[in-house]
Amino acid sequence: MSTSKDNHRKVAEFLLRIKAVQLSPEQPFKWASGRNSPIYCDNRRILSYPEIRTSMRKIASEMIQDRFGKPDAIAGVATGGIALGALIAQELEVPFIYVRASAKEHGTGRRIEGDYSQFSNVFVIEDLISTGKSSLSAVDALREAGLGVIGLLAFFTYGFPDAAKRFELKECPFFTLTDYPTMLEVATDSNYITKAQKIQLDSWSIDPVTWSENHHSI
């Protein structure tokens, strides 16, 4: 039986292999926030690889059930958590709904899409945790709609301390399929990055703001 650490490493290997996570300390990426970063994550790429998609769907579903039991339903966070969440809901054979980033400006003006009148609790699926703000905004919307939020699963996290604190303050338990330290460990072991690059990548995680100011993006 696979341990949690085994699964963390396996998922990290998958994400590196399909370039869902890219590491480039010498030529950083520019995030939407304007910050420069040595890592870029696009978990939507998982959907393009059937074998990896299936494996990760099963790992996620097993981990949810082992830790929290079977939820009434799955709620995906738009947009990255919609398809991934639907896959997990299919595996668990439970209903699926999703939460928009903001309410529709036309029609019903709803923020939560799907029929949630027949169940009382949900488990939330997110593709990535950065600051945690968008994930917890979705959690707030679900709670305001009268649904209990059992917990949240993200496929990857950068591991910023302020994000973990936000989840704690909202009393929302969460876990991830893999994380930044595991990603660097696997990348180093597989020679995807050098030890010198790992030092650069470690320094970013300690102080992303200063790192961004000292490095130019591609």
Instruction: Using the alpha-carbon principal axes, give the shape.
Output: globular
Nearest-angstrom radius of gyration?
18 Å
How many separate helices? Answer: 8
Low-confidence stretches: none
**Which bin fits the share of residues in helices?**
40-55%
Report the order of strands and helices. HEEEEHEHEEEHEHEHHH
What kind of sheet is the major sheet?
6 strands, mixed
Question: What structural class should be given to the helix and strand makeup?
Answer: alpha/beta
The name of the CATH topology is Rossmann fold
Which band does the percent of strand residues land in?
A: 15-25%
- How many beta-strand segments? 10
Instruction: Trace the largest sheet across and list its strands.
Output: 7-6-5-8-9-10
Q: Tell me, what is the CATH class?
A: Alpha Beta
Distance between the termini: 42 Å
Mean of all residue-level pLDDT scores: 94
Taken together, the total number of domains comes to 1
Based on the coordinates given, report the CATH architecture.
3-Layer(aba) Sandwich
